Amino acid sequence: QECKLVREILNPQIGESILDVGCGPGFHLVQFREWGMRPLGIDASQAMVDIAKQRVRFDIPVFQGIAGKLPFQDRNFDIVVFVNSLEFIGSPSGALHEAIRVAKKKVLVIILNSYSFTALRRQVGSFFNKSWYHRARLLNLWELKDLLCQQIEMGRIYWGSTFSMPMLWPISSRSRASHIG
User: Fold this and answer.
1) Which of 24, 46, 136, 173 has the fewest CB atoms found within 10 Å of its own CB?
2) Residue 136 CB neighbour total at 10 angstroms
3) Interatomic CA distance for residues 18 and 103, integer angstroms
4) DSSP summary character for residue 167
C-alpha cells in the first residue's frame, strides 16, 4: 500500500530525475527505476550504500553523504524524496532545507507516524531486538507540517495515509491536499 500511495502522490513521469535521501538498502531506488525514472541514492551509512549498490547491481548511482549538506547544485533533481529516512537524520530541518534547494519540482517526505500502531510496535520491539528504530525520532503529521512551514513560505502540501486495522478492514489509502502559508 505504501508503494501505491507513493506512486499516487509522486505521479512519476518517465525520465524524471529523483534523489532518494537516506536510500538505505535501495528498495525504493529499484521501484523508481521500474517507473521509468532516473534515480540516484544517497545515505550517510557506508554499509547501507554498499548494500544498495549490490541490490541495484551498480546500475543506479548511490553515494555516501549527509542529508544536511547535499553535494549537488541547486535545482539539480526533478524530485527529492525521504522514504522513512527523515526520522533518522540529526537535523530534519537542515535536511529539508537542502532537499528544497536541490529539487526543481517537488519534495516528497514519507514518515512512519509516531502515533501509529506500527511505529509503537517497532519502537517497543527495538528495546528487545536491536533494530534501526531504537535511534529513530519518529514524527507525526503536525510535527512534519511544522518542519515544512519553517522551510517554505507558501505552497501546497499533498499528503496521504495508509491505514490498517488487523481483522477489521483491509489496508486503504487516500491522499489530500492542503494549503499552507
Assistant:
1) 46
2) 21
3) 9
4) T
**DSSP type of residue 135:** S
Distances (CA, A) of 138 to 5, 42, 66, 120: 20, 21, 19, 10
Q: Which residue type occupies 2?
A: E
| DSSP-based three-state secondary structure for 56 | coil
Residue with cell 529523483: 18
Q: Distance between CA atoms of 166 and 163, rounded to whole angstroms?
A: 10
Give the global pTM.
0.77
Which residue type occupies 122? R
Helix (H, G, I), strand (E, B) or coil at 58: coil
- Render pLDDT for 137-171 as a digit per residue (tens, 0 to 9): 667 676 777 777 776 654 555 555 555 444 333 33
* Alpha carbon distance 27, 15 (integer Å): 19
Whether residue 124 contacts residue 132, with contact meaning beta carbons closer than 8 Å, is answered with no
Question: 155 forms bridges with which residues in the sheet?
Answer: 180
Side chain identity at residue 7, one-letter code:
R
Cell 517526505 locates to 109
Residues in the chain: 181
Task: Say if CB 43 and CB 64 are below 8 A apart.
Answer: yes
Return the SS3 of 94: helix
Cell of 36: 521509468
